[in-house]
Design a protein that fits this description.
Blueprint (H helix, E strand, L loop, with lengths): L6 E5 L10 H8 L3 E4 L16 E4 L8 H13 L4 E5 L9 H10 L4 E4 L4 H8 L14 E3 L18 E7 L6 H16 L7 E7 L3
Parallel strand pairs: 1-4, 1-5, 2-3, 2-4, 6-7, 7-8
Length: 206
């Protein structure tokens, strides 16, 4: 009978292979199985042993989430050290929380290894500080792909002046996404909850 091994949910960073954490690189070097996202830089796979099993999650949800978690559980139950390599940070719009919940339910040990998110990396590379004592004290991040398929700003922003809004769904259909954001802002402004205004909107990611 195999002893269940540990699963590592590792953030691959925003694309530059040099931005993976030291801990993430260390775990890749001793992985038996690497299940990786399309957004993870393929150069990172070279860190893993040649004998490791490499499984691509695919692109544009080519592999359903249920199938991914089933693979993780099967390999971990077989005693394999599994690295689940996820673009950016595993707990920032990466469904890492869902995978962690399943692992906990199956009583499989796991470790979260944070990664550099495009939320901060892209503005940084562009020379844009998300916060600045003299100019900006807040920023908001949202995705256009929530569980209900809707595009909405979080309720916590109601009654606030939001200086930066970052949409992690990328530039595809940017016009329609921008119109959706504007619609949400207009709806909030028409309620008694208070005003919501935006200074800057950025579309980031794939």
């Amino acid at each position: 009978m195999h002893v269940k091994s540990t699963v590592y949910l590792v953030g691959a960073g925003p694309g530059d292979a040099g931005l993976i954490t030291v801990r993430g690189a260390e775990l890749l070097r001793r992985a038996d199985v690497v299940i990786y996202d399309a957004l993870a830089n393929p150069e990172l796979l070279r860190l893993a042993p040649a004998s490791a099993e490499f499984i691509s999650r695919g692109k544009n949800m080519a592999m359903p989430q249920a199938e991914i978690t089933a693979l993780i559980i099967a390999r971990a139950t077989a005693g394999k050290t599994v690295v689940r390599l996820k673009g950016g940070d595993p707990f920032v719009f990466g469904r890492g929380g869902e995978e962690a919940e399943v692992l906990a339910a199956e009583k499989i040990q796991f470790e979260i290894v944070p990664g550099v998110s495009s939320i901060t990396a892209v503005p940084n590379y562009a020379g844009i500080p998300l916060t600045h004592r003299e100019h900006c004290s807040s920023f908001t991040v949202f995705t256009g792909h929530n569980g209900a398929g809707a595009c909405s700003l979080p309720g916590a922003t109601v009654g606030m002046h939001v200086q930066f809004v970052l949409d992690l769904t990328g530039a595809d259909n940017a016009t329609s996404k921008f119109e959706s954001v504007v619609t949400v802002v207009d709806e909030i402004q028409q309620t008694d909850a208070g005003d919501l205004s935006l200074d800057h909107l950025f579309f980031i990611g794939g």
